[in-house]
């Protein structure tokens, strides 16, 4: 089986986002994931060294940001929204339909629709 290593690393970061929790030291995530991939993520500076007795790893700021983005890209649904505008006749008219991503909600694994303003 030919696996895209970069895609696998991104998926693990997205899964880490779903397993994150806050502590005084910052965001942490449970590390029960493939060791070889965890080592690769550590080598890239996204996470702390996974080869410790701790059951979680620290995410760097970049690792936390990227894990959230990847989670949304890989796992969150898209929603179609019809945009209404105020027409010259003084009435709302329906505009084009845009597709907006919904945001992943961290450790709950649920998705939330963003506010549209």
What does this structure look like?
The strands form three sheets. A three-stranded antiparallel beta sheet has the order 1-2-3. The chain has a two-stranded antiparallel ribbon with strand order 4-5. It has a two-stranded antiparallel ribbon with strand order 6-7. The chain is of the alpha+beta class and 117 residues long. The relative contact order is 0.17. It has three helices and seven strands. The longest helix is centred in the middle third of the chain and has 15 residues, at 61-75. The chain has helices at 5-18, 35-43, 61-75; strands at 20-23, 26-30, 56-58, 78-86, 92-101, 103-104, 111-112. The model is unreliable at 104-117 (pLDDT under 50).
Topology record:
Blueprint: H1 5-18, E1 20-23, E2 26-30, H2 35-43, E3 56-58, H3 61-75, E4 78-86, E5 92-101, E6 103-104, E7 111-112
Helix pairs in contact: 1-2, 1-3
């Amino acid at each position: 089986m030919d696996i895209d290593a970069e895609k696998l690393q991104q998926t693990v970061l997205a899964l880490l986002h779903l397993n994150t929790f806050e502590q005084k030291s910052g965001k942490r995530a449970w590390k029960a994931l493939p060791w070889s991939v965890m080592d690769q993520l550590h080598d890239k500076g996204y996470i702390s060294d996974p080869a410790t007795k701790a059951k979680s790893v620290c995410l760097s700021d970049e690792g936390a940001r990227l894990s959230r983005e990847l989670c949304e890209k890989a796992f969150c649904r898209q929603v179609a929204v019809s945009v209404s505008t105020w027409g010259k006749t003084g009435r709302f008219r329906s505009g084009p339909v845009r597709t907006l991503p919904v945001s992943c909600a961290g450790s709950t694994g649920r998705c939330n629709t963003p506010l549209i303003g």
